[in-house]
Amino acid sequence: MRVFAICLFAAAVLAAEPASEEQAKEALARFKEAFRTKEIEARQMAVYELHDVRHELVLKELAKLLRHRDVEIRNVAALAVGGQSQDLRKAGELLMKSYKKDFDEEDVISSVIDAMAELRYMGYWPEVQKALKDDRSGVVVRCFELIGTNKDWRAFPDLVDMYKEVMPRRISWSTGTVNVDTGAAGDADQKAAEAAFNAKYGRGGSKMKAKAKAKAKSFDLRNFSTQLRKCMKAITGEDFDNAFDVEDWWVENYEMVARKIAELEGEDPDEAAARAKVGQAELRAKVEEERLRIEEELRKQREAERGK
After folding, report:
1. pTM score
2. In the chain, what are the domains?
């Protein structure tokens, strides 16, 4: 029922003002009457209609629904909390409880993250930081949307690392790693990587090779470079084509990034900027060292190819 929930979320129109207590009680009475049906979509609709009724009584009812035994009800209840902006702290804390309890339920966790983005809630860090490494692409993409919506500079260092992972594409195999960047459009890199893998590890129908191909396919499904670029642009205002450009920009704007992160974490921005000024040279040296290492690897690779 995730599609149903997403459609409702996209079509939502926020109420201009919080509801009165009388309006909230009337809405809850209508909800309880409609919720008696056994029709799951009708029950979901009844839950979601609470989205636009902003009141403490509604938030309390949604808190109960987030503990409902039916995951499809919890899914829509999480989206409905996204409308409860009359008390951002309570709504956010409620979503975080659901986030921790239902993290293994992809539909629910996706709805929770969507609701946080609608509320512009910022209290999800560092839990969402860990979710950026999740195996489920849908969860990671929604984290990008949340971080981008909130222009959350706290995620910037992690996004830089992710740029290194997916831009340019890196194919990881269980029996080894082959990095190929042909600079070509389409699936040229994928085909080149497969050819390099076959040359290095041989052909055939072995279990090891099957396992390697399965892992490569799994990685390819996680190639969310478009969403990653969009998230980074939402935060920085810059459109980075590759990881090198991101790193260069970070080196040049290291103090500013440190100041932004400090502001979000409730620390002294001036002290953070002063520390960054000292650490900027170290970051620059680290980036230059990594570039030299990559260039050396590429040189050896070209020499090996010429020697074949």
Report:
1. 0.75
2. 2-124 (1.25.10.10), 170-221 (no CATH)
